[in-house]
Amino acid sequence: MKQSKLFTKTSKQVPADADSANAKFLVQAGFVDQVMAGVYTYLPLGLRTLQKIQNIVREEMNDIGGQEIYMPALAPKENWQATGRWDDLDVLFKLDGAGDKEYALGATHEEIVTPLAKKFARSYKDFPFAVYQIQDKFRNELRCKSGILRGREFNMKDLYSFHTSVEDMEAYYQKALEAYKNVFVRCGINALVTEASGGSFSKWSHEFQMPTESGEDTIYVNEAGDYAWNNELFPDMKDGDDAPDKSGKVKEIKAIEVGNIFPLKTKYSEAFKYNYIDENGEEKPVMMGCYGIGPSRTMGAIVEANHDDKGMIWPKSVAPFAVHLVSLGSKDETIQDRIDTVSEAVYTDLQKAGIEVLWNDRTDQSFGEKFADADLIGLPLRLVVSEKTLAEDSIEWKERASTDMRLVKIQSAVEEVASWVKE
Amino acid sequence: MKQSKLFTKTSKQVPADADSANAKFLVQAGFVDQVMAGVYTYLPLGLRTLQKIQNIVREEMNDIGGQEIYMPALAPKENWQATGRWDDLDVLFKLDGAGDKEYALGATHEEIVTPLAKKFARSYKDFPFAVYQIQDKFRNELRCKSGILRGREFNMKDLYSFHTSVEDMEAYYQKALEAYKNVFVRCGINALVTEASGGSFSKWSHEFQMPTESGEDTIYVNEAGDYAWNNELFPDMKDGDDAPDKSGKVKEIKAIEVGNIFPLKTKYSEAFKYNYIDENGEEKPVMMGCYGIGPSRTMGAIVEANHDDKGMIWPKSVAPFAVHLVSLGSKDETIQDRIDTVSEAVYTDLQKAGIEVLWNDRTDQSFGEKFADADLIGLPLRLVVSEKTLAEDSIEWKERASTDMRLVKIQSAVEEVASWVKE
To answer: What is the ipTM of this complex?
Structure first.
């Protein structure tokens, strides 16, 4: 895409209420626009990243047999009364509907998916199965902070699995746990599997916690650095205490929760009287698990973990474009023509090679502004075409995550980018 | 996908409140599930079709330079007060938010997109541009009917264009009109460009009306059958009257509106004091156009136009799968093994060839039930593997839109399907 056509522009002004790296950089770079606290518009650059995260999540959920569906946000009061959450869930948005009807706006979807599953799967032969959706949730949070990390309206992937036994549910739970690890690795973030409270109906659940100083959660990591415990589950734990699994001492760190998986067991099937018929014709309660990842929250977490003081540093897998092609101006008309011609050719050839490229072809920016834009937006690879590089029949190659710069010959540039993309 | 794994099942029971073909067949075939009147869950088969329609719309909007964004459903009361629609729009859902704040749920997005554009584009050099989103809208309709044709929550593509002159807006309007024609042709429906009222700020707008007896709108079609007038614009018109453009007599028909485009001019830019700075440094009001297509409504309209008494007849471009592979059972174990082996091979080879296939591998259905399922779901091509077809080393080929059946040799079946898909 040509940057001159992009309707958004970067801004030098830090948003007044920016309390975190993602709130600051995503707004300044024109990835998102705040409509009100906790409610954002995703702009062209930001939406590209959000969709890439959604697609990674979709692929991993399909891989564990998840069937994609799309549930509505609106639901009748009765569904939420059946579980008691019409009164108990304080963040639930309530609406006056037609006549004397009342509706809730989906803060989560157990109240919709359980009656749905009940309509189709009643015999033991119909189990197990899992459905998921990528859809927007609404929660009437009293205060919203940290940019897109905690919103009143946010994007969520929620998967629900249905089983005839605890053992089968727990086996699927382990598969989901591995799929979640894959999602975060592919998104370029380090998320620790963290033991958390299971509420009233399970001994435990698991969160995926990304270590970062800006995190609002406190977790205790084991010595191997591959497992942690949430402080809600172990409120008396301190830094240096023995790990609950006796594996050594724990280290206290701050982290952001980017996903959670939960053995619901019969909590919602009982609320909706959802039983299956077993081999002997007897009714038994259905076992459920639920598994959540917020793609918008993950996008914010990626920024928290990948930025410097100049801007964001996107991993290739979720960057809005892989390459930022930057053409610098020249006062010499002949040289300017050559810069334009070479830039256009590289732009076209990169696209032909299937490489996503943002071309800063703007003529109203200084060198400094163009470099500042590239650092702020944070695409993984910057290619500069200028009078200086053309004197060497070259283009300047600089990766956002590194300080190294080098020249690559114009002729081989696209090929080199293509192999770098595949790395 | 294997039908035995699909968690939904078809139903012989017509929904009690089904008042239209789409409400009946989409529910019976397991494409959608009604959560409440006007609010549906999209199930695996239905979501695949919805996503295909969305992608056709996305491609056509990108082709006319639309930049994809994603605006939230929640917005502050103030935005809706600025245009007067907080009080005037009777279908607007209103919510109590944090503290004494009030929010609206997006019934349309002029109230969000106009202030957004104002943040980024102020100089005449920034124009023209167009942004669009594919997002869910909420409207508190008193009564909802006709399945997914008119919902309280529904999917919408809304594009907004921004210009410095009426002429430029009108030129873009024509491009959008052509893009809309492409969308409907690609979705397999015949949508007539129909002159409609322009409200208080334009002489006209245009609707895209699909002729069908179940339509709730009345339109008057010209003799060439390529242009129509809405009866809201010409309330006194009758069948057989002279066409407003003197091209001959009009014919009165029933139709469903599947899209509309609207010259907003300065209606919303004035409400938000959105001016641009022209070449002489003077402030002038921005000209806007808006352009809507409902992918979920389009999906319903496709069913209204493409069904028979047995079920739906999906056009290839938007069918959830191109092929329904149906394996019939045999009491002879050796033959049953061969049916399974051939079916599995055809299923695998079709997928390898990039062809989307639903394989009815269920062992708990009779021949009649399998054929009824195939007719109801309505995939474009049915391939049957049975004792009878294998006796001829063949598979039975039947297209849903035709009554012809023929046998194709097993060896060449996948190749024949691949060329049929490309037709």
So the answer is: 0.97
Tokens of B96: 């109590």
Residues 26-55 of B with CB under 8 A from A: 30, 33, 35-37, 39-44, 47, 50
Closest alpha carbon within chain B to A95: B95
User: Would you call A62 an interface residue with chain B, using a CB distance cutoff of 8 Å?
Assistant: no
Nearest-by-Cβ selection for B73 from A42, A50, A153: A153
> A91 at the B interface (CB within 8 A)?
no
Q: How far is A91 from chain B (nearest CA, A)?
A: 10
Q: Nearest by CB to A141, which of B5, B98, B131?
A: B98
Q: Is B364 in the A-facing interface, judged by CB distances under 8 Å?
A: yes
Strands (E), A266-401: 275-277, 283-285, 287-293, 307-308, 311-312, 323-327, 357-360, 381-385, 394-399
Q: Least CB-CB distance to A8: which of B76, B103, B120? A: B120
Backbone φ and ψ for B349, nearest 5 degrees, come out as -70, -35
- When pLDDT is cut at 50, 70 and 90, the band that residue A407 belongs to is very high
B141 at the A interface (CB within 8 A)?
yes
CA distance A272 to A266: 10
Domain-by-domain residue ranges, chain A? 21-71+109-308, 323-422
CATH topology of domain A21-71+109-308: BirA Bifunctional Protein; domain 2 (3.30.930)
Provide the token pair at A157. Answer: 């992937």
A245 min Cα distance to partner chain B (Å): 39
**CB-based contact, A7 to chain B, within 8 Å:** yes
* Beta carbons within 10 angstroms of residue A349's beta carbon: 16
Q: Which CATH entry fits the domain spanning B323-422: 3.40.50.800, 2.60.120.380, 2.40.10.340, 3.40.50.620?
A: 3.40.50.800
Q: How far apart are CA A422 and CA B2, in angstroms?
A: 33
- B310: tokens are 């047995």
Phi and psi angles of residue A215, each rounded to the nearest 5 degrees, phi first: -65, 150
3-state SS assignment for residue A315: coil
Residues of B in contact with A68 (CB under 8 A): 44, 47
Q: Which residue of A has its CA nearest to B103?
A: A36
Closest CA to A145 of A24, A51, A259, A12: A24
Q: How far apart are CA A307 and CA A26, in angstroms?
A: 11
Tell if the pTM clears 0.90, that is, is over it. Answer: yes
- Cross-chain residue pair A68–B44, CB shorter than 8 Å: yes
Q: pLDDT tens digits, residue range A334-347?
A: 999 999 999 999 99
pLDDT for B266 equals 96
Angle, CA B365 vertex, CA B360 and CA B369 arms, to 5°? 85
CA distance A234 to B154: 44
